């Protein structure tokens, strides 16, 4: 038992980290051709207690603990966090830290796999290295790190000004502190699994896919910097995973650990290789086929439940896995045929234009999809939606800065309107723009019950936390401040 744990430490296979594939992989088959075992809820629960020992969570958790101990939050009344929900002083202190951690970790994966050849089973044989695509992914990822720092600033502001309660005892100072610290350590990775599925699935509904998530899917074949390459509105909802820190009385470590997980885990899961200790064929299939495998690897049972589980590359993609250039720009050049029935989620007439072998997000929606490059100017549709969605959040930011400067509260009705605008405005704007441009894409809706459930959970996990945090920031300071 102990030797098994040691050999699988941090997700290793037989004690090896590179040039070793997950146990289900048959190395005699082409990369991606092995069949992923069907995930089950029971297996997910059974693996839960060991999630910090025999999965890559070990490394991320160690990084989070080091950050929390070495660069703790300053939640004093006179600290930068208390001055404003978006404070230049807070950003000056925290943004370089987050950029350094994220860049160091992701660059390690990019360099070892794509420059130094530490792995030898790429999903796409003879992959062409495109610096322009990497630069594109870097720019949108850095925007994500900035937005995360904004999330952290808002939470630190709420705590420091008494607008949100938190556990201020450290793990070492009391039994209560230790309990909260250990609970956060163990539960954050499990919560991330659940949140990611529902947030990701909502981003695949027609309008949100067309205006927001299609940017992430510009990378049909992935590399580590494509992991956090998302539209700013996707970052907004992806980082809404911080919901438990709003709902529950938690230690600030829970938020920081959540942030480390959100920023670092996409790096290796978008590696593009099958034979290393954080390889993620499951999510790779999602980028190849788009309308399947919405969950992270660990929570694949959710895809089984909702009928979107795909366990291998289809036969025409297994012969060396031909390079499939980035979606959108290349649909006319793609020679592969439609996917077999096993790769289709429903009988919806949308299916052939959604997530098909055309490179994902095909059909008429393709015109809103752009290649992963910075050399082409954005479309008018992209720029208009970006401006509209930014306006939804900026209106709140201006009011919140005013509230912070005057240490008062916004008028109740105004606070509610601005909070709803920040959380739900980007969704409404996506629907409006998509309705005008008649673009679209993403995934089939399925039956009304399934669609309703997915939309309800998506809204609860994406828009509601953003609105709630924004609303709290417009309230008066707590009495203890
Ligand atoms: Zn992805
Ligand atoms: Zn997706």
From TrEMBL:
UniProt xrefs under InterPro entries: Fatty_acid_hydroxylase (IPR006694), Sterol_Desaturase_Related (IPR050307)
Protein origin, superkingdom: Eukaryota
Any GO CC annotation of this UniProt entry: membrane
GO biological process, one term: lipid biosynthetic process
Membrane keyword on record: yes
Compartments in which it is found: Membrane
Ranges annotated as biased composition (Basic and acidic residues): 317-329
Keywords per UniProt: Membrane, Transmembrane, Transmembrane helix
An example molecular function term from Gene Ontology annotations: oxidoreductase activity
Domain Fatty acid hydroxylase as annotated: residue spans: 186-308
Region (Disordered): 317-344
Regions that span the bilayer: 95-117, 138-158, 178-198, 236-257, 382-407, 414-433, 453-474
Protein name in UniProt: Fatty acid hydroxylase domain-containing protein
């Amino acid at each position: 038992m102990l030797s098994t744990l040691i050999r699988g430490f941090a997700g290793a296979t037989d004690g090896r980290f590179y040039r070793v594939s997950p146990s289900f992989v048959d190395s005699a088959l082409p990369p991606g051709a092995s069949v992923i075992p069907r995930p089950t809820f029971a297996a997910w629960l059974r693996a839960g207690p060991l999630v910090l020992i025999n999965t890559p969570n070990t490394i991320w958790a160690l990084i989070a603990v080091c950050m929390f101990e070495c660069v703790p939050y300053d939640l004093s009344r006179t600290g930068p966090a208390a001055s404003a929900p978006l404070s230049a002083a807070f950003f000056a202190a925290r943004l370089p830290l987050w950029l350094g951690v994220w860049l160091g970790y992701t660059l390690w994966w990019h360099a070892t796999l794509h420059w130094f050849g530490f792995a030898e089973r790429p999903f796409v044989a003879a992959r062409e290295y495109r610096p322009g695509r990497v630069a594109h992914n870097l720019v949108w990822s850095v925007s994500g790190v900035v937005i995360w720092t904004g999330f952290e600033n808002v939470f630190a502001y709420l705590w420091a000004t008494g607008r949100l309660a938190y556990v201020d005892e450290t793990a070492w100072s009391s039994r209560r502190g230790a309990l909260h610290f250990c609970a956060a350590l163990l539960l954050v990775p499990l919560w991330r699994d659940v949140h990611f599925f529902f947030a990701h699935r909502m981003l695949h509904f027609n309008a949100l896919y067309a205006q927001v998530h299609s940017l992430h899917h510009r990378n049909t074949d992935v590399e580590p910097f494509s992991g956090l390459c998302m539209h700013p509105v996707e970052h907004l909802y992806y980082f809404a995973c911080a919901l438990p820190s709003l709902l529950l009385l938690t230690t600030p470590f829970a938020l920081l650990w959540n942030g480390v997980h959100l920023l670092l885990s996409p790096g290796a899961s978008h590696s593009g290789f099958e034979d290393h200790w954080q390889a993620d064929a499951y999510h790779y299939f999602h980028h190849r086929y788009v309308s399947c495998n919405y969950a992270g690897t660990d929570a694949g049972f959710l895809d089984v439940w909702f009928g979107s589980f795909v366990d291998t590359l289809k036969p025409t993609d297994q012969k060396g896995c031909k390079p499939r250039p980035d979606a959108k720009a290349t649909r006319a050049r793609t020679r592969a045929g439609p996917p077999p029935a096993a790769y289709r989620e429903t009988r919806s007439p949308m299916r052939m234009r959604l997530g098909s072998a055309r490179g994902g997000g095909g059909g008429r929606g393709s015109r809103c999809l752009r290649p992963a490059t910075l050399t082409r100017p954005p479309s008018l549709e992209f720029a208009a939606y970006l401006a509209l969605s930014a306006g939804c959040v900026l209106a709140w930011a201006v009011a919140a800065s005013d509230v912070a400067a005057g240490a008062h509260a916004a008028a109740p009705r105004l606070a509610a309107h601005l909070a709803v605008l920040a959380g739900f405005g980007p969704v409404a704007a996506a629907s409006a723009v998509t309705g005008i441009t008649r673009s679209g894409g993403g995934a089939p809706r399925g039956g009304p019950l399934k669609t309703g459930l997915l939309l309800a959970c998506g809204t609860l996990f994406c828009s509601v936390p953003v609105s709630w945090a924004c609303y709290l920031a417009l309230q008066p300071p707590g009495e203890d401040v």
